Structure formats: C-alpha cells, structure tokens
Amino acid sequence: MANDRNWERIILAHDIYDPDNLRVGLQSKGTITLGIGAMTSLKKPGYVELLYERSHKMVGIRAADAKTPGAFRVRKETASSTWSIAARSFCVAAKIPLGKAQRFTGAMEGDVLAFHLDKGIPARIQRAPKGSNGAAASAEAGLVDENETSHEHVVVGS
Asked: Which residue from 43, 77, 90, 116 could staple onto 82, CB 3.0 to 4.6 Å apart?
C-alpha cells in the first residue's frame, strides 16, 4: 500500500547553498566557473559584469543584464551545479595569467562576488567517462578534487 511507504528526500550535497562556500574556478583557458553558493549569492543572473582590482589582484563579479555594456553571459553546465563564463577576453585585457586551472573561495562585498587571484589553489582535474553524470564538469570547475566526491547526499527528512 502506498500510504505505508516511508519515503526519504535525498538532496545532493553539491546542490545545497552554503553562504560560506562561494566556490569560483578559473580554468586554464580563461573560463570562470561558479558553484551553486556563488551563483545563489549573485541571485543567479543570466549576465554578469567582470571587474578587476589591479592593486589587490582581485576579480569581482556583479550581476548585470543583457543590455549592460560589456556584460558576459552566464551558462548553466548540463547535469551539474556549475555555471560558466567565457572570460578569456577579460583575462587577456586585465593581463591575468592563464595556463593553469585554479579554484578560489569568494566573498560577497556588497553586490560583488570577489576573489583574490593570489589565493588560488591548483584544481586537480578528474575526468569522468563519457555519458557520466557531470562529475567531470564539476572537477574542471575546481569544485571537486580527486580526494572528494561530488555525490555525497544529505537526508533531509521523511
């Protein structure tokens, strides 16, 4: 009988918003990736402005709209909790060194998600087989490393 079932709600840990865990990745070719905490803090915009604070080597990301001059489109990665920004032109113009994937912990400064370029740690990239569930995209974003799992789960009640 359906009424006798004890259903559990399962939520993947990487889908839970944590305001203290604003993960940002900078891929080797200039793509900026944002985890769910970072995107939620920015209110999940479709476009962003990319800002640079040269004296402190900080990058800022601020929500924008499509008509904002110089706005960058934010794309949701398929089958993962990661968003990406094609930011190579920004990195080249700001003279931000590329060539190695890094991950950062961002912090909100008003309406700007900020991260220090000199506080990045190398992103250990693991590739998942084709047709997998998106773990490779999360790894490339610097959101998981070879010692973590992107499929931990949390039981949120029955």
From this structure: 77
